[in-house]
Write a structure and sequence with these properties.
mainly beta, five-stranded antiparallel β-sheet, about 0% helix, four-stranded antiparallel β-sheet
């Protein structure tokens, strides 16, 4: 198996720049890293500060990240990411040329685990025996048993892979190059993301870049369970255009199913990025509601969703691909109550805001795709007033 394994401690130097604040109000007096309480005063929303010290830099062996495609947090509060080295230019990977054209840099392994301090714990991934590595790795999910799930978002990727925490191969669902469309339950269509339901041990797939559906399998055996399309409709192979459009009940099919997440109360949240909407379902596929996050613009808004770590998951965080923001929604009614971030390449700004995850302390981690090529941490600083209050 071609993979890289690395266990490191305390590598790199911290970035020594000031902390910038991005929130709907001034920072609160609570210490960073406190978990949001289950109840708060009406109108209070989570506040965040950009953390310039995470992850530790520089990376070992002249490693450099490509487009950040996935991020998740495991039970030990370790942060895992996936990235696409294909986004890197020949100038960024000059050290990997034969012969080398410069001292720096070379692509990092596609899967990387960080600890809370920002040190790299291990890194691995790539082609190996017994499975088909995706042409373009996309998404990353850590399940309740610590296993790592990844998919691929371009043709011929039609499959999903499951690995142990050490990179040992466990399961492949689907076969590369064998996708037969939305009615095919054995193969996928360039899946974007997955979620694991611990209550049923099912893996839910945002399927995705070529198909227009959500599909569930047994997480141990890969046995097909169920699938459905937008609003609970039967998904078809007929696209409703390739440009972003405003979502709504008139759009009977998903445009680009980019994320799926499952809440503690067993609701399934689906990002329809191309149609600017989030749809919510019960686990049997019954449609519950939908939300258009930014009704005044047409762009690739709903990229990914993460929840606040309180038991009720009072808040949900949505990455906005087009506007370079993270929107803060109150999960009960899905109303937007705040946001943070801005467009730009400096720390705390975003370029192609892609995937998002929260740790047990309420801190947020965001990966950036294409030219963003990084992962950033935003420290939770407490609850504060919503915008305009």
């Amino acid at each position: 198996m071609r993979q890289w394994l690395m266990r490191l401690a305390g590598i790199g130097a911290a970035v020594t720049m000031g902390i910038s604040t991005f929130a709907c109000g001034p920072p609160q007096t609570e210490a960073p890293g406190q978990q949001p309480p289950a109840e708060s005063a009406v109108g209070e929303v989570p506040q965040f500060e950009f953390d310039p010290t995470w992850p530790k830099q520089p990376f070992p062996d002249e490693w450099i990240l490509g487009g950040g495609m996935g991020v998740d947090v495991d039970a030990q509060d370790h942060i895992w990411i996936s990235h696409q080295a294909s986004d890197l230019t020949m100038f960024e990977t000059a050290a990997a040329a034969d012969p080398p054209r410069a001292i720096c840099c070379r692509p990092a392994p596609p899967i990387i685990e960080f600890d809370q301090a920002g040190n790299i714990v291990q890194a691995w991934g790539g082609p190996g025996e017994g499975y088909q590595w995706p042409r373009s790795v996309h998404g990353l999910t850590i399940d309740h048993r610590g296993n790592v799930w990844v998919g691929g978002n371009v043709a011929p990727d039609a499959h999903l892979l499951k690995f142990g925490p050490d990179g040992s191969f466990l399961l492949q669902i689907g076969r590369s190059g064998e996708s037969k469309g939305n009615a095919d339950t054995a193969n996928l269509g360039s899946p974007a993301d997955v979620a694991i339901d611990p209550a049923t041990n099912e893996v839910w797939v945002a399927d995705g870049y070529r198909n227009r559906r959500v599909i569930a399998y047994d997480a141990d055996t890969g046995e097909y369970k169920r699938h459905f399309g937008a609003s609970g409709n039967v998904p078809t192979d007929v696209a409703q255009g390739s440009a972003p459009v405003q979502g709504g009940s008139s759009l009977e099919q998903f445009g680009l199913v980019h994320c799926v997440v499952i809440s503690n109360d067993e609701l399934v949240y689906v990002c329809d990025r191309l149609h600017d909407r989030i749809q919510v379902f019960r686990t049997d596929g019954t449609f519950v509601t939908e939300k258009i996050v930014t009704p005044d613009v047409v762009g690739a808004v709903a990229n990914d969703i993460a929840f606040s770590p309180d038991e009720a998951q009072r808040f949900m965080y949505v990455t906005d691909h087009a506007s370079s923001k993270v929107w803060i929604l109150r999960r009960l009614d899905m109303e937007v109550v705040g946001s943070f971030g801005y467009g730009g390449h400096f720390g705390g700004g975003f370029t192609i805001t892609h995937n998002i995850a929260t740790d047990s302390k309420g801190n947020i981690y965001v990966t950036e795709g294409l030219e963003g090529k990084r992962v950033q941490r935003f420290l939770y600083t407490g609850l504060g007033p919503a915008a305009g209050e």
